[in-house]
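About this split. The held-out portion is used to measure sequence recovery: a designer receives only the structure tokens and must propose an amino acid at every position. Recovery is the fraction of positions where the proposal matches the reference. Here is one held-out target exactly as it appears in the evaluation file.
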């Protein structure tokens, strides 16, 4: 007899053989199954609807469910790194009808004269090459960034926008390098090619941001002055422009408008600059 035996007298005989901890057992099993399940990139992406501001046609583009993508941290130059997915692969929106492409933050903002330039120089020749699977490969993502950069050049975008595209494309190329198959016979050659491409993109990003800093107001690309100056400093350090890097980092550290997090990063970067200056001095 179960411990609920006798309920029949109350008309509840159907409950006499109930498992009193069944609900807790089911919840425990559910949590265990969730813990075992590894979230896939496909599960973190969805098709979002857009209306193209150039050709006025509706289309869909893959977008990251950012609330579901766990941020693991950032590289020295603030490149975000998420668990399971490289969210940067999905930051370019491309209209498959007319070829207009831009970073998500810029896509809807295009003036009539710019749209006219896009139609004449992009749309008139564009041939759509849709992605093959449920996610964007690194090569597909890089192609989309190249289209965004081409569009930016054609529509005569600001230096900051072109620089930001170059910076983000460099980060995607870095992600591609990190995910190369080490067992591929061409691994070393592919990795070298990625590094060279990343360097070229970062040099263009540096040039663009330096030009933008002299002619544009902040915020720039949605970034405040401290973030832009820090990014310029990191790229300047990478390419040996230590005087530029040192000057901007020093300004960041003493500026009252720089938040504590950025000041801490700037101090770490300053130590790296000092170390590189010492190495250069000892090499002479």
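Reference sequence for scoring:
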């Amino acid at each position: 007899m179960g411990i609920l035996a006798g309920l029949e007298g109350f008309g509840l005989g159907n409950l006499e053989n109930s498992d009193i901890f069944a609900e807790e057992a089911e919840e425990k099993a559910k949590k265990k199954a969730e813990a075992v399940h590894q979230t896939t990139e496909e599960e973190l992406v969805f098709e979002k609807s857009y209306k193209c501001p150039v050709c006025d046609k509706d289309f869909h583009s893959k977008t990251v469910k950012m609330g579901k993508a766990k941020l693991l941290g950032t590289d020295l130059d603030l490149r975000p790194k998420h668990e399971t997915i490289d969210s940067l692969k999905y930051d370019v929106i491309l209209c498959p009808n007319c070829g207009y492409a831009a970073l998500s933050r810029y896509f809807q903002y295009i003036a009539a004269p710019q749209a006219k330039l896009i139609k004449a120089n992009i749309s008139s020749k564009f041939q759509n090459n849709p992605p093959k699977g449920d996610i964007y490969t690194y090569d597909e993502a890089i192609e989309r960034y190249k289209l965004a950069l081409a569009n930016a050049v054609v529509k005569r975008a600001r230096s900051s926008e072109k620089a930001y595209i170059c910076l983000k494309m460099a980060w995607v190329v870095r992600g591609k390098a990190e995910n190369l198959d080490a067992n591929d016979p061409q691994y070393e050659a592919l990795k070298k090619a990625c590094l060279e491409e990343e360097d070229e993109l970062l040099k263009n990003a540096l040039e663009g941001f330096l030009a933008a800093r002299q002619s544009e107001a902040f915020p720039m690309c949605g970034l405040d002055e401290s973030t832009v100056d820090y990014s310029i400093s990191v790229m300047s350090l990478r390419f040996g422009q230590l005087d530029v890097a040192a000057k901007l980092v020093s300004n960041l550290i003493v500026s009252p408008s720089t938040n504590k997090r950025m000041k801490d990063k700037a101090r770490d970067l300053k130590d790296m600059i000092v170390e590189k200056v010492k190495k250069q001095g000892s090499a002479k």
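Annotator remark: The chain has a mean pLDDT of 93.
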